[in-house]
Design goal:
This protein is mainly α. It has two domains: 3-41 and 160-353, no CATH class; 47-141, 3-Layer(aba) Sandwich (abc type-2 transporter like fold), CATH 3.40.1710.10. 66% of the residues lie in helices and 5% in strands. It has helices spanning 3-16, 21-45, 60-66, 79-87, 101-106, 123-141, 161-164, 166-192, 194-199, 205-230, 238-262, 266-288, 303-314, 323-353; strands at residues 50-55, 72-75, 93-97, 114-117.
Length: 354
């Protein structure tokens, strides 16, 4: 086996990749899914109240809102711009605090408070922002709230939908880049006859497969990391995230090599991908619906790469918490790699006999 020959094949595939519509689609898909799922569904299921404030006197109200995690705060200097954003529904509400507002409240005066509400804002957001503003002003005045609210939470707090959709986005990045790109690339070379021409040179079938596999790994890792970064799941433990993503790319890419070796033409390749789509996608669904029996997800091979990504990138766990899943994933990768090598030898013998 020659590393230089593997590199030459890989370099050729990387250079010619952008000419393929499948290659380009694999790059675009994670970004498109992030836009659709996070912007559309994320804002639908987990809308944060959006408040704009013009603070002309360094009020304690502004400082208190800045410390709140549940409110999205934007500071303005121009009242016209603030009103325009509320009218355009870019903000749920706008608040103008005049100079000396806190001192006037403490002195028992009744200063004018301009509070604008967006006509298209959620009713829940209006209530939250209105009650919050009144409560903070009461704190400045020094009076007690008319009621005491005791919040009792039953069960564990659930993750927002925007977080639970991350495995879905990463799944498509891994499958499209790791599985579909190297598999379709291998099939295209069969159909065009370039694979046969390549195998009559000193290049071996195993070297071709390793080059195709590395193509899928590189593309899958880059796009999976980009997907996690776009969705805010690439935190301080980015090195550990990278480890689990590399393992995930290795497994997804070897699946693509298997499909490419087995498929005789593009129609069979597409049939394999379409036919196995639900089987491959199934583990990602369990993160969207966490109440489903989670042991079922372990029956699917891609669970062993999606689970480590979920635990390390989203939940903030270390590699020690997912070592077993990583070992299983590497074992599956090695077993499928041996199967792909055996099928490649048979493919080369069949092509030589033609």
């Amino acid at each position: 086996m020659s590393l230089s020959r593997i590199w030459k094949v890989l370099r050729k595939d990387l250079a010619q990749g952008p000419r393929s519509s499948i290659f380009l689609w694999a790059i675009v898909l994670p970004f498109a899914l992030t836009l659709i799922l996070q912007v559309a569904f994320g804002s639908l299921f987990d809308p944060k109240p959006r408040l704009g404030i013009i603070d002309e006197g360094d009020s304690a109200v502004t400082a208190a809102v800045e410390d709140m995690d549940g409110i999205e705060l934007t500071l303005f200097d121009d009242a016209t711009e603030l009103k325009a954003q509320v009218e355009a529904n870019d903000l749920d509400a706008g608040l103008i605090l005049p100079p000396g507002f806190d001192e006037q409240v403490r002195d028992g005066e009744k200063p004018t408070l301009q509070f604008f509400i967006g006509g298209e804002s959620y009713a829940s957001n209006r209530i939250i922002l209105t009650v919050t503003a009144i409560d903070l002003i009461r704190e400045i005045e020094g009076s007690d709230a008319p009621v005491t609210v005791d919040v009792v939470s039953f069960g564990d707090a659930g993750l927002p939908m925007s977080k639970r959709l991350i495995p879905v986005i990463v799944f498509y990045a891994l499958v499209m880049a790791g599985l579909f790109v190297p598999g379709s690339n291998l099939v295209e070379e069969k159909e065009q006859g370039t694979l046969m021409s390549l195998l009559v040179t000193p290049v071996k079938a195993s070297e071709v497969l390793i080059a195709k596999w590395l193509l899928g790994v590189i593309l899958a890792v880059v796009l999976a990391v980009a997907s996690l970064a776009l969705n805010g799941a690439l935190g301080a433990n980015w090195a550990e995230v990278l480890v689990v993503v590399v393992v995930a790319g290795a497994l997804s890419s070897v699946l693509g090599i298997l499909a490419g070796v087995y498929a005789k033409d593009s129609s069979i390749m597409f049939a394999i991908v379409k036919g196995s789509g639900l089987f491959l996608f199934a583990p990602a669904i369990f993160y969207v619906f966490p109440d489903w029996p989670q042991w079922i997800a372990k029956l699917f091979p891609l669970y062993w790469i999606i689970e480590p990504i979920w635990q390390v990138s989203v939940m903030g766990e270390g590699l020690g918490a997912v070592w077993f899943e990583l070992v299983v994933a590497l074992g599956i990768t090695a077993a499928l790699g041996v199967l792909a090598w055996w099928l490649a030898r048979r493919m080369q013998a069949q092509m030589a006999g033609q």
